[in-house]
Amino acid sequence: MNPDALDDVLSSNARRSIADALSVRPRTLKELASITGISVQGVLKHLKRLLELGLVEERRLPIRTLKARAVYVARGQLLGDYSTSDLVVIKPTELLPPRGTRSPSDLEGTAADVLVMRRRVRNQAKRLGRMIDELVDEREALKSGLDGLQLSVEERLALEVLLTEETLQDGLRVLSRYYGIEDRRSIDKALAKARRSGGK
């Protein structure tokens, strides 16, 4: 990826959230607005920039029975929001006693603490890297598995939503709210195809 494009994505929390959501599966405009908490017009502005960068593409939906007319999809590589917002960083100066009260043993103890923390941070960074790699591998395996099935557009959307939401009920709610898919027969048909394929 072009470093300037990456900087452009990373410079905006909204673009990071949109890119992360699209890396999981296609999303509608209203769904992205709900995820990011910004207006549809705001999402469109960010999507326009991601489209210009070539990171996202719009796919028109041919099915008239769906509520949505288009979905947005990440192109090529996956973009995740792996920000450090949940990490707590302790600056070494916060560990030091106030100026004028420091003894050589305080400094030695602090230096030892800093070395231990650096090792912990390095180990946690490696662990986080492995977890991100596993997540990307799982997303690629899901995409590859769906690509291998003979599915209609509606069936594929249904499976992508059902397999990426936390629970079946969450998936059914998303399908109903954003895509207008409420017919359980078509959903059950798509799930049956996936099960048959998984048993081969």
Q: Tell me the count of domains.
A: 3
Mean pLDDT figure: 78
Q: Tell me about the largest β-sheet.
A: 2 strands, antiparallel
Termini gap:
37 Å
User: How are strands sequenced across the largest beta sheet?
Assistant: 1-2
Supply the helix-strand structural class: mainly alpha
From N to C, what is the helix and strand string? HHHHEEHHHHH
Within the CATH hierarchy, at the fold level, what is the topology of the largest domain?
Answer: Arc Repressor Mutant, subunit A
Query: How does CATH name the architecture of the largest domain?
Result: Orthogonal Bundle
Shape: elongated
Low-confidence parts, pLDDT < 50 over ≥5 residues? 84-96
Give a structural overview.
- The chain has three domains: 1-83, Arc Repressor Mutant, subunit A; 92-130, no CATH class; 148-200, no CATH class.
- It has a two-stranded antiparallel ribbon with strand order 1-2.
- The chain is mostly helical and 200 residues long.
- It is elongated.
- 64% of the residues lie in helices and 5% in strands.
- The chain has helices spanning 3-10, 13-24, 29-36, 40-52, 92-95, 104-147, 153-164, 168-179, 184-198; strands at 56-60, 70-74.
- The chain has nine helices and two strands, in the order ααααββααααα.
